[in-house]
Amino acid sequence: MKNILLLCITFISYSIQAHNDISCRPHDVNGRAREKTVSLKDLTLYIHIHEKESKVAGRAIYKYTYLRPEIDTLFLDAIQFQVKSLKINNNPVDFKTDSAGITIILPKNKSKENTLDIEYECFPSRGIYFINWNNPDPLAKKQIWTQGQGIDNRHWIPGFDDVANLLFCKTNITFNKNYPLVSNGDLIKVVKNADSTTKTWSYEMKKPHALYLIMIAGGDYKFKKQKSKNGVVLEQYYYPELENEFEATYAKSEEMMDWFEKEIGINYAWGKIYRNVPTQDFLFGAMENTTSTIFTDFMHVDKRSAIERDYMGVNAHELAHQWFGDLITERNPTHHWLHESFATHYSKWFLYHTFGKDKYDQIRKGERDGAFNASRYNDFPVAHSQGGSARHYPKGSYVLDMLRLELGNENYRKVIQVYLDKYKHGNVETNNLYESIYEVLGRNLDWFFDQWVFKGGEPVLQINRTIDKNSVKLSIIQVHKKNDVIKNFRLPLDIHIQYSNKEEEIKTYTITKDSTEINFELNRSDISLITVDPDAKLLRKIGYESDLETEFNILKTSPYSMARIEAVERLKSMDWALKSDVFEAWFAEEKNTLVKTEMLEHLPKENTDAKAWSIIKMGMQDANHLVRRFAMNGIHAANDSIKPLLIAVQSDTSYINIEVATKKLLKLYPKESSKWLEAISKLSGINRNLELLYWSEMLSKSKEDKQSENFKNAKKRLTYLASETFNFRIRTEAMDVLIAEKEISEYLINSMIQGSLYFHPQMRNRSITYLNQLKKEFPDAFKTVFEKYPFKSEKDKNLVLERIK
Predict the structure, then answer these.
(1) Whether 349 contacts 323, CB under 8 Å
(2) Confidence tier at 545 by pLDDT (50, 70, 90)
(3) Three-state SS for 50?
């Protein structure tokens, strides 16, 4: 899953300082699993979706055994349920409910095998989401979908909502007959019901999985089937009106499944079906529910938009979770990295396989930056419930790169095979991975897990190089901060020697101390360059005690793109005049996109330098869309030689580049604004970015004549884009424009009231902020609209009033 932590489970963060003995780390006392008193083994779930009322009527039938026969009550998570009936072994039992769940009075005579049967109703505020069912707009996408991680399925399923609760499940969902519906596992049957308005879909999981992975999705969809070489059917859902986006959205999906099975060495474990379903306003990027992934329709894109934001990387991440997270599941949040780091790692390696080393380096640079940025705030390690997304995703992924390097690719694959096969359909802790390495290879990797998994921080190295003919002396100092949880690192460093004829030699030394001196002699003296870990195999930062010429030499001669990127990074603080000549000359030679974009970030804020204009001009004609964009970002003044290039970018392959170019033209050449706007007038763009730009500019340009057609059309269109028909990103951008121009209408205020009650926090928070502003600036208009608004309940009305006090 993308960018989510298990924040809701109440664990006290454990003391990192206590992690001195590796044998006890995976079993820390405060990050422990939640206690349970029964073992819920099977769940048969009957759900009737009342979409217009946002209501769930359900029946949950569990098979269970007692873990502690002496207990007399059982508590199930169930948020604000109305329980209609509750039976154990077909006999009614006493129970009581509160806002958090159901307390069941257990029978005194306990059977070995038991059945718990609960009938209930609920109006979930989380966990299951109802989109646009009361919206009369024909363009509104009608959907229901669920998001259970971390503990939100308790809002519509009564149960022990915890990652350590694995069970077999069958789902039977009654829903509007006019729309397809998806759940987990194999579709067993679909029955038309006697009411003539609904069908019941029955799905079955034949292997156990965690309760939080149970899902439902249904609504305005069609689907197409693809098939992997191993016979797994990929059931790919799409919006009917966006069939032309299917190919771009699901690019490489069949190849992806084939690659994962081969790379991991364990076949897809959930039968022969895997699904992807896009949804509006999904809370995160995507969610890896077993057999059926849900993702945000922000990535349901055409080929042109896919240049900027495709689903492929997220698709690979969520598919990896079918092994790492679903096949094996963390015992508690301390071990969350065993889900997210692995999914991020394998997604990165699939993209490496598909697009090559430059793509891999681009991702690794982002992972490095994310890890170091997180360390500005705290020193949590990867294996920590509060490690945060930066540790669980990018840093952990980089750590697994280093584990591969330490073990070797083939040995790494053998370990992963044993690890997954041994613990499949069960809960795992970090120690299980450690033990698998020892079982397969007999290697003791205490030091690796200690410094990269159980302790925090990242190494920073300062390096001084002295070369005297064929003798080399390196002084390497570990200069990062050190404390109880950040120590010196053990680092196997590649020393890369490059000769004048471009021949190369690599020597590897392992350092462990604060300061290390390395001396060696070579068989030749024509040394042109020496760099340390030039391919950034290790998660670290490096600084050289050297002059500008040395950094320029790395930039111009190192065969490693990561070394060249880092050389440019180290030049960031240097005065532009000292590097402009080299940058201009080398920009034309450089092939790597990341190096070019890094160089473009050094451009001066004022474009008064001929060298800067020369680089911008080259960048705007580059084949890569990101280089073109970074070049445009460096334009701060009008320039007659650049203007034609900006105009050309209004026909760019990238919708975002078109937006950037149009904004530059509007700012630098305002007298020709009509021409610039006409060029984008028929384009919608990516997530309607060009449509939003066009109408916001039209609103601003015509605001002096509010009776003009241009003004009326602009206000009408932006007000519509702010409505619940559209996703929260489009809505909030349209609201921003209308509020800034103080163009308020009853329709807009209605949209904001609806938004203030919306489940998505970004939509809700922006709406609340603007309603507060409107209440102060336009109190009469606000009061009139508010009093007429059709609230579902007095509770909702009071909630809005409470939020805008």
Answers:
(1) no
(2) confident
(3) strand
CATH number at residue 359: 1.10.390.10
SS3 at position 521: strand
Asked if 398 and 364 touch (Cβ cutoff 8 Å), the reply is yes
Domain span at residue 195?
Answer: 1-13+40-217
CA geometry: angle 327, 328, 329, nearest 5 deg: 120
CATH code: domain of residue 123: 2.60.40.1730
State whether 6 and 115 are in the same domain.
yes
Per-residue model confidence as pLDDT tens digits over 498-526: 999 999 999 999 999 999 999 999 999 99
Which residue has tokens 């449509």? 691
Question: In the structure, what pLDDT confidence band is assigned to residue 1 with cuts at 50, 70 and 90?
Answer: low
- Domain shared by 205 and 102, yes or no: yes
Q: At what angle do helices 253-264 and 337-355 cross, to 10 degrees?
A: 120
In the chain, pLDDT over 90 holds for what percent of residues?
92
Q: Are residues 64 and 171 in the same domain?
A: yes
- How many domains does the chain contain in total? 5
Give the model confidence (pLDDT) of 675-689 as tens digits: 999 999 999 999 999
pTM, 2 dp: 0.94
Going by C-alpha positions, the residue among 288, 504, 305, 492 that lies closest to residue 402 is: 492
| Tokens representing residue 455 in the block | 């302790």
Tokens of 413: 């694959």
Contact in structure between 14 and 29 (CB atoms under 8 Å): yes
Domain termination residue (choose one: 452, 480, 504): 452
pLDDT(783) > 90: yes
CA distance 198 to 554: 68
